[in-house]
Write a structure and sequence with these properties.
single chain, 314 residues, alpha/beta, Inosine-uridine Nucleoside N-ribohydrolase, Chain A, nine-stranded mixed beta sheet, 13 helices, hydrolase, glycosidase, Ribo_hydro-like, purine nucleosidase activity
Length: 314
């Protein structure tokens, strides 16, 4: 039986690959995409979600627009220097014939959760504003989440937007604090496992050659490749969100440990840092399953082979 899946996202280059990976995977049934501010503004993330779904021939999947800004304090800056000003690396995908779902994202998500006969996996791969709003407005719906897989944070690797903070948590620390403290069945896929998982030029070339969808995905990735080369001197790209989706699709892909996680919501240099207590495992009701180990080679092969399959079928 396929697992019902919702992706909450801010496309974003690696978000686009994560959506394509979900569509390529028979283990899950992508029933809804909700969008949020983050890498670029909400109008751009929503349009990008529609276009990525259309690229894969899945304009039937509804897209509902969510939070335009963070819960309390505005996000200081976007990530256009990494993802391009419109979010997809300067690549213009064909427009979708589908319209945005008229429901706010939180309403659409709540209705799906309350109506589903099966537990729903929610993959949150952007700032956690929508999920925090769901907790506040529809707690009875949030309680029905079967599994919440979050791309965010870092236990041991520092940050990628500041010395302390990972981007998604930093973009709305108050929302992250609310979500991690809610007692939902949460898996935290952070920089500890994403940074070692590098998609190489060889892997990109494989799905680029498999068909038009793969070719367009590779084109979207090019700005990511260029940014990694110029900023870090490395060849290949870290596709953070695709690794989180891999764990959502195949539970147990990552080795996780239950930990207590606190988010720094102050206004100093540590704002947005995830403080993960690694001294011991946690039996707390609010413990988060923190991903601490990954078979990076297998994870990259999973992504590449699934994208090749999607490109060949579409």
């Amino acid at each position: 039986m396929r697992t019902p899946l919702v992706i909450d996202t801010d496309p974003g280059i690696d978000d686009a690959l994560a959506v394509l990976l979900a569509l390529a995977s028979p283990e899950v049934d992508l029933q809804l995409v909700t969008t949020v501010h983050g890498n670029v503004g909400l109008a751009e993330t929503t349009e990008n979600a529609l276009r990525v779904l259309h690229l894969a021939g899945r304009s039937d999947v509804p897209v509902a627009a969510g939070a335009r800004t963070s819960l309390v304090f505005p996000q200081p800056r976007r990530a256009g220097h990494v993802h391009g000003e419109a979010g997809l690396g300067g690549v213009v995908l064909p427009p979708s014939p589908a319209a945005v779902d008229p429901r706010p994202a939180v309403v659409a998500l709540a209705e799906l959760l309350l109506a589903s006969e099966q537990p729903v996996t929610v993959a949150a791969i952007g700032p956690l504003t929508n999920i925090a709003l769901l907790l506040g407005v529809y707690p009875e719906a949030a309680a029905r989440i079967g599994r919440l897989v979050v791309m965010g944070g870092s236990a041991t690797r520092g940050g990628n937007v500041t010395a302390a903070a990972e981007f998604n948590v930093w973009a709305d620390p108050e929302a992250a604090a609310a979500v991690f403290g809610a007692g939902l069945p949460t898996v935290l896929v952070g920089l500890d496992v994403t940074l070692p998982t590098v998609l190489t030029a060889e892997g990109i070339a494989r799905f680029a050659a498999a068909g038009p969808v793969g070719d367009r995905a590779a084109a979207v990735l090019q700005q990511y490749v260029d940014h990694a080369r110029s900023s870090y001197g490395v060849e290949g790209v870290v596709v953070h969100d695709a690794l989180a989706l891999t764990e959502a699709i195949v539970p147990g892909t990552l080795t996780t440990v239950p930990r207590d996680v606190v988010v720094d919501t102050g206004h100093g240099a540590g704002r947005g840092q995830t403080l993960v207590d690694r001294r011991t495992t946690s039996s707390s009701a609010t413990a988060v399953a923190v991903a601490e180990d990954v078979d990076s080679e297998a994870a990259v092969e999973f992504l590449v082979s699934r994208l090749c399959g999607l490109a060949e079928r579409t």
